[in-house]
Amino acid sequence: LMFLAGVHWPYFAAVITAAIGLVTAVFQSRGTPWQLLKDYQYRRIDTFLDPSQDPLGAGYHITQSKIALGSGGWSGRGYMQGTQSRLNFLPEKHTDFIFTTLAEEFGFVGGVSLLCLYALIILFCVVSAVKNKDRFASLLTLGIALNFFLFFAVNMSMVMGLAPVVGVPLPMVSYGGSAMLVLLLAFGFVQSAHVHRPR
Asked: Which pTM does this prediction carry?
């Protein structure tokens, strides 16, 4: 978003350099009295890198998630017919791992269909932001679109084992009122910026 707002490259270089330094410090400080993360946070990173090292403990969620994703196949097992979710092998199947349940029951086609719906929402936001001559409204709309994208990208990456497991809900699908309320409020801002844009 800062790039879209016109922030100069040296600032990005400084932030990237600081981020690389911080990541290096996090890994180098492990096991020392001044370690930067808690032990459970290091275990979460270890589980992300190799979930098979503790398949019945810390790696259980991601292992069951991958099994459910793979068992969905092309067209899925059918509504309410997923074995991993129906037989309660899959934890948090109605919140963080709802995409896994959807992909098991509706398969690759169902997962891609959801991605297409998300892409349409983002496309509307981007087109609305580009057409809006008010700079603040345009950046607000792009920021909300970026936030929406990051939420579903992190959630889907998490359930596929491409990112560490964190408590990020799948927008407009995961169970939970507060996330839905914030998302609807954000989309209300997008609609307001679109309707009241300067002609």
From this structure: 0.76
